[in-house]
Amino acid sequence: QVQLVESGGGLVQAGGSLRLSCAASGRLLSRYGMGWFRQAPGTEREFVAAVSSSGGDTAYGDSVKGRFTISRDNAQNTVYLQMNSLKPEDTAVYYCAAGNVYYSHYVARAGNEYNYWGQGTQVTVSS
Questions:
Q1: Contact at 8 Å (CB) between 4 and 23?
Q2: Is 1 helix (H, G, I), strand (E, B) or coil?
Q3: Nearest 5°: phi and psi at 77?
């Protein structure tokens, strides 16, 4: 079992930045591909970003490319999402997820590829 706890959410003005953290316990994070997803009220869950277990490969949703950066520190068992140039449409609950992978360079983009989820952290961007 892997337990994931997100932190770093909050209220920020448009154009501002936030850094989300996802701390894992239970097992070494280095075994898992990691991802961030978000969900706004009344919408479907949306893929935001993902990183391979090796940390060398990443993928981003079209709406956040060039603004968000995912990274991982396996020694700290933590994954980060640096969010810059935030827009009101980035307002959502952000979830961290961990997935079993069999190839260290694989980057999972679909929610059903992930086995463990955190409780989420609210990000609100005001205009």
A1: yes
A2: coil
A3: 55, 45
pLDDT tens track for 53-77: 988 999 999 999 999 999 999 889 9
The 3-state secondary structure of 39-101, one letter per residue:
ECCCCCCEEEEEECCCCCCEEECCCCCCCEEEEEECCCCEEEEEECCCCHHHCEEEEEEEEEC
Which residues share a beta bridge with 92?
Answer: 123
Spatial distance between the Cα atoms of 79 and 93, rounded to a whole number of angstroms = 17
The confidence score (pLDDT) of residue 123 equals 98
Say how many C-beta atoms besides its own lie within 10 A of residue 125's C-beta.
20
Average pLDDT across the chain, whole number: 95
Please tell me the predicted confidence (pLDDT) of residue 84.
Answer: 98
**Are residues 82 and 19 in contact, defined by beta-carbon separation less than 8 angstroms?**
yes
Q: How far is CA 65 from CA 38, 85, 122, in A?
A: 15, 11, 20
Using the 8-state DSSP alphabet, how is residue 104 labeled? T
